[in-house]
Write a structure and sequence with these properties.
Length: 279
């Protein structure tokens, strides 16, 4: 009898111990679940910070992708405060130009009229009368037009057109046109001889030298030195390339008039003198 009671007591104690273990297990299960649920709550502070960081990364990637497509290093600026040459040319006004040809000053006037904008070109005196070829352009800009014209003039050694302004793509940039270095006449003196016998049929030596002296004075330079040798009918001149070139032009023009004057003088000679008989 005592043995049964003891056994029953042990069973009760065992049952109580089992319920205690189960209760502890449930407590361990419930508490961590509640804690985990609190940490993984969607509206928590840590998750919001993570979301903001991910958004910033996505925005930065989008900026860099746009920068690569535009060919610009770094992030794309939201505002261009100092546009470069490409931006300046893209902002330049496009227009059509029909230029029939003329001097540099006439070209500047035509560009300003067609573009309704600036065209800043400084023209050196030695190229003021340079003949610009006809131009027919459509949807062009002033910087592009002047760059193309500079290549044409440079290839023919007629003149040099350049822009020292770094913003040469800007339509308001200042360009300069000067005579090409390879085409500039030498300022050193040279001596040349010209036979003027063909002019003596219509002019005297004094008339020839007076015409040359007048032309040299109009040229604005100091008169060259010259000597006429009567025995050989040579005119010896020491001067610059410009002076010698002007001398050739004058002598060529006088050649035509000398022949005419010789015919006029011959027509005034009496027939008796021509035939060698006296009446």
């Amino acid at each position: 009898m005592k043995t049964k009671i003891r056994t029953a007591g042990i069973g009760v104690v065992a049952v109580k111990g089992l319920f205690g273990v189960l209760a502890c297990g449930l407590l361990l299960v419930v508490v961590p679940s509640a804690m985990w649920g609190q940490e993984s709550e969607p509206g928590s502070e840590s998750q919001r910070v993570d979301a903001e960081q991910r958004q910033q990364v996505r925005e930065e990637v989008a900026r860099r992708r746009a920068a690569r497509q535009a060919g610009i290093a770094g992030p794309v600026p939201t505002q261009v405060t100092n546009p470069g040459p490409l931006a300046a040319e893209s902002a330049a006004k496009r227009y059509d130009l029909e230029f029939p040809g003329g001097t540099p000053a006439q070209l500047v006037a035509a560009i300003r009229k067609a573009s309704e904008g600036p065209c800043n070109l400084i023209i050196a005196p030695d190229v003021a009368e340079l003949a610009i070829p006809p131009l027919s352009l459509g949807s062009t800009t002033t910087p592009r037009l002047l760059r193309s014209l500079a290549q044409i003039l440079s290839s023919s050694n007629r003149a040099t057109l350049f822009c020292e302004d770094r913003a040469y793509q800007d339509e308001a940039a200042v360009w300069v046109m000067v005579q090409d270095q390879n085409n500039r006449p030498s300022t050193s003196l040279r001596c040349q001889a010209r036979n003027i016998d063909f002019l003596l049929i219509g002019y005297s030596v004094d008339e020839i030298t007076n015409a040359l002296s007048t032309a040299w004075k109009l040229q604005g330079n100091e008169l060259p030195r010259f000597v006429y040798d009567k025995a050989t009918t040579l005119l010896l001149v020491s001067g610059t390339d410009r002076q010698l070139g002007l001398m050739d032009e004058v002598l060529t023009q006088m050649n035509d008039s000398a022949k005419r004057r010789a015919r006029e003088k011959a027509s005034l000679v009496p027939e008796s003198v021509k035939s060698g008989s006296l009446r």
